[in-house]
């Protein structure tokens, strides 16, 4: 059973980070406010978790303006998509082995 945990990624142990990656896996991109509302998070909570995923190069952040308002958009990187896929597959293998 220990082998089933081998590819579990600690970056996705947080339900917030798991949620962020799940949303970005099925959407090409997602803006900050929509992601915050979908996951019922505060600005600070979302910002800290997205920063952690950015540092791992699992997501990228693009900031710009729409009119006079700032707009922050997140995308999963190829590295992040692969890491998340491996993590989900490891969870599935664990569930099948129990």
Automatic annotation (TrEMBL):
Superkingdom field: Bacteria
InterPro entries: WH-like_DNA-bd_sf, WH_DNA-bd_dom, WH_DNA-bd_sf
Domain annotation Winged helix DNA-binding: ranges: 16-95
Protein name (Swiss-Prot/TrEMBL): Transcriptional regulator
Species this protein is from: Bacteroides faecichinchillae
The organism's taxonomic lineage, starting at the top: Bacteria, Pseudomonadati, Bacteroidota, Bacteroidia, Bacteroidales
């Amino acid at each position: 059973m220990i082998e089933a945990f081998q590819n579990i990624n600690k970056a996705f142990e947080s339900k917030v980070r798991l949620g962020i990656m799940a949303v970005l896996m099925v959407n090409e991109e997602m803006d900050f406010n929509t992601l915050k509302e979908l996951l019922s998070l505060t600005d600070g909570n979302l910002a800290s978790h997205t920063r952690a995923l950015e540092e791992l190069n699992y997501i990228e952040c693009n900031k710009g303006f729409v009119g006079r308002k700032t707009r922050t958009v997140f995308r999963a990187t190829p590295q992040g998509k692969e890491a998340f896929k491996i993590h989900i597959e490891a969870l599935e293998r664990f569930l099948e082995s129990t």
